[in-house]
Amino acid sequence: MPFEQYLSVIEDLSRDMPVEVRYRRLLEAIKQTIPCDAIALLKQSGRGLQPVAFLGLRDEIRGRHFDPAHHPRLDAIVNSDQLVRFPADSPLPDPYDGLVNSDDSTVHVHDCMGVAIQVDGRPWGVITMDALCAGQFDAINANDQAMAISLTQAVITAAERINELRRKVRHGDRATAEMNRDSMASSIVGSSNVMTRLFEDIRAVAPTPLSVLIEGETGVGKELIAQQLHLKSDRFNKPLIRLNCAALPESLAEAELFGHTRGAFTGADRARPGRFELADGGTLFLDEIGELPLALQATLLRVLEVGEVQRVGSDETLKVDVRVLAATNRDLRQEVIAGRFREDLFHRLSVFPLHVPALRERGQDILELAEYFLERLQTRLNIHRLLLTPDARTALRLYRWPGNVRELEHVLSRAALRAQQGQRESDVGLVYIDRAALAIADTAAHTESASTTQPVPPHDEVGSLTELTQAFQRRVIDKQLAQHNGNVAAAARALNVDRSNLLRLIKRLGGQTA
Questions:
Q1: pTM surpassing 0.85?
Q2: Which residue from 30, 19, 63 is spatially nearest to 188, judged by alpha carbons?
């Protein structure tokens, strides 16, 4: 029993370090007691379970938010007060099938167990442990298991209490509200350096009353950033009112923003408050601010400066307390130079500018986001598990994504439907999305000199060693199956492997058998 490691983790509680680092050290200590190939700590977030630390699983699993209602093993763990172990031949699908890091692609059956974690009598999350060999957990002493789980529960409880105390020291009686607020504000997926810097800027400016201009291409998620800024501010329990300036008819824009009295114009059969009044005490998010008519920009500037609005058709002014967030996919600096946007309004809105990076600049976040969308699609399309083949993962990373995150979501939605319709599910309910199902351009093949439609040759593929190895295995197996008219037994003999192992490998690689 590695008590020293647990003591080291407990000592870490007094240090200010990232949560994931602290919990990874905890998982390393558990792994010393209960040897396993994959271990994960998942925290309850809304209805789902979100990975906060893990070992032996693909990095992009951070994007998966597991809903126990869709994962029967997790559901069994969550609803038990004991350690739950599943037999190797359990018919229940494993939540990590296809997501475990392993050089041995032929292994499919594995041991799995997990336990629910409670803090102060309330559900906190779960720890899951997976082994790639059936029966791997048989030799583990039951007392060691119980001790490891008890110490783990104690460490997590202590960590949560210390975090709550730190919140109370910083924010007094608002600690509980802040915890609820932070759980609501955890919907942005990404761990790349550019997103980490963006999160740091959000944390810095969110609690202030400063206006923020959110800049970025179409589809990068500017509205999500605005939501984060609101939820992490002191106004999080007040209204967040949204207005798309590009969708405003110029004749009605002023009334929409500032309200109007009855009879102020044709069709105004009753008085209505504007968006500023509705957002009083809270936040007003003006999307596509670059589309706002010049004539209205001067009125908006005055409202921002003096905090007063005047309904159309009224001489009365109303005081409002509104924090304004604005977003644009235009370069407002160039718009100012071109005379299409007021310079004084630009400076008033961009007290703290935030640039949301394009998806092509976010590296591994592409796969993390893909896993996030696939997890949601599984529920919507009633598919047990949607998985990306190695060539699909490579294609996602190489593509330039002109439509950014929105395009990624739409591409995966279409690909999931294609994969479901054109591919028979495996015996454990896995549906694989390959490059063909994605139907996106192979960016690596698009060069100035490449006027031919020939695909990129195999030796030019880009990816990790594991991905390239799996791609090679797939080509060899496909060739043998074609030569033997889809006869798996004959192909297995030609490849000098056991038929059952070849079947497992085909399923792991996302292939089909006759």
A1: no
A2: 63
| Bridge partner list, 213 | 326, 353
CA–CA dist 37, 49 (Å, integer): 20
Tell me which amino acid residue 151 is. L
Among candidates 68, 64, 66, which has minimal Cα distance to 77? 68
Residues in CB range of 212: below 8 A, 6 or more apart: 205, 229, 325, 326, 351, 352, 353, 354
H/E segment holding residue 283: strand 283-287
Residue 99: what residue type?
L
CA distances from 466 to 66, 157, 334, 346, 384 (A): 25, 38, 46, 49, 25
DSSP output for 55-108: ESB-GGGGG--B-GGG-HHHHHHHT-SS-EEE-TT-SSPPTTTTTB--S-TT--
Average pLDDT of span 218-245: 95
- How far is C-alpha 166 from the geometric centre of its chain's CA atoms? 27
Q: Is the pLDDT of residue 170 over 90?
A: no
Instruction: Take residue 391 and report the two structure tokens written for it.
Output: 């060539």
| pLDDT interval class at 69 (50, 70, 90) | very high
Q: pLDDT at position 106, please?
A: 41
Is the separation of the CB atoms in 514 and 486 below 8 Å?
yes
112: Cα separation from own chain's centroid? 25
CA distance readout (Å), 427 to 11, 90, 231, 371:
47, 13, 43, 22
